[in-house]
């Protein structure tokens, strides 16, 4: 978890990055920007808002040989070791981005490199480096009051409500390639930002493994439990799976199978499905790991717990108390109507 509430922007360098393939130039500022309170407040909201609103999916610097050969990792490490060098190093970052700006779809824009103080991550206060890019320009009106009229002037500028691209590199977990958060509002050139410029991959921690394993369970429920049983059992399986994650601090696969799978015939199906699909979820040989509670909460919000019937009726199950569905919902077949039915028991209707 991160907390940017008390974070301060200690320095800001602004450069202009063109598209090298289109023979557009790069403009490097000779000195850092002189910040004042007003613009600092605006920039903090512009830079940090996407990270407060976005689910925390961490990345780390990687390289096929060794992370030390990742050029941005090297520059970032030098900045953390000597923060006063951040502006000169920001020019190297800008040049690195310019070299990767060669695809015709990549738009020119302004690059902001910041050194950040007092960032909290995993309950630890650290420094961080922010790298942000604004690309899309928007028309806006300016007004010029004259003696008897008001002139309307059309100008172009950056929308401070939407950051195009950005990343926060935390001075945390250096040996593993640092922990990094990234946002990208323009999906057409994601590889350019994540792979070619940053050179990152997913940070494989408890948050990553919890999310991946729960997504794997969700797909198992859809692909195996639903065809073998029915929609109710699919929902109930995910009910039990989510609750197992919620009530345990550590995941143990054998305990999970005993707790979650009611039908013993599905256990070998689960193991076969994992052997076949594990690489897709990065959970090969993963049988135990610490559970990240925030990842469980986020996954629970996304999971559907509704049975939609072709008679325009919905039955909503309860993820918190799955035993209610087992006790009070029964499925059957009506010979006379030649239709399935759900029988729901209750004492009284609840007021909405």
From TrEMBL:
Pfam families in the cross-refs: NA37
GO cellular component terms attached to this protein's record: nucleoid
Protein name: Nucleoid associated protein NdpA
């Amino acid at each position: 978890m991160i907390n940017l509430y008390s974070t301060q922007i200690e320095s800001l360098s602004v450069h202009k990055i063109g598209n090298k393939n289109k023979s557009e130039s790069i403009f490097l500022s000779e000195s850092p920007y002189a910040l004042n309170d007003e613009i600092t407040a605006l920039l903090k909201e512009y830079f940090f808002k996407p990270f407060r609103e976005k689910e925390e999916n961490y990345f780390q610097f990687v390289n096929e040989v060794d992370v030390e050969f990742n050029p941005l990792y090297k520059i970032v490490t030098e900045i953390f070791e000597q923060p006063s060098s951040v502006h000169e190093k920001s020019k190297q970052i800008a040049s690195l981005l310019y070299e990767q700006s060669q695809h015709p779809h990549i738009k020119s824009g302004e690059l902001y490199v910041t050194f950040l103080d007092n960032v909290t991550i995993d309950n630890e206060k650290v420094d961080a480096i922010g790298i942000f890019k604004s690309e899309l320009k928007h028309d806006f009106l300016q007004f010029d009051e004259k003696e008897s009229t008001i002139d309307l002037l059309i100008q172009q500028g950056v929308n401070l409500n939407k950051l195009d691209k950005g990343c926060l590199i935390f001075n945390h977990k250096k040996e593993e390639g640092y922990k990094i958060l990234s946002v990208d509002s323009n999906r057409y050139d994601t590889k350019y930002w994540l792979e070619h410029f940053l050179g990152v991959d997913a940070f494989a921690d408890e948050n990553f493994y919890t999310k991946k394993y729960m997504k794997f369970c969700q797909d198992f429920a859809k692909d195996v439990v639903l065809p073998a049983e029915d929609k109710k059992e699919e929902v109930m399986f995910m009910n039990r799976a989510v609750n197992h994650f919620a009530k345990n601090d550590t995941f143990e696969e054998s305990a999970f199978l005993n707790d979650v799978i009611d039908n013993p015939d599905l256990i070998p199906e689960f193991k076969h499905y994992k052997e076949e699909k594990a690489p897709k979820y990065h959970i090969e040989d993963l049988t135990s790991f610490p559970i990240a509670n925030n990842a469980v909460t986020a996954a629970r919000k996304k999971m559907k717990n509704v049975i939609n019937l072709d008679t325009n009726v919905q039955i909503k199950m309860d993820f918190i108390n799955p035993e209610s569905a087992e006790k009070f919902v029964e499925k059957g077949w009506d010979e006379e109507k030649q239709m399935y039915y759900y029988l729901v028991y209750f004492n009284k209707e609840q007021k909405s």
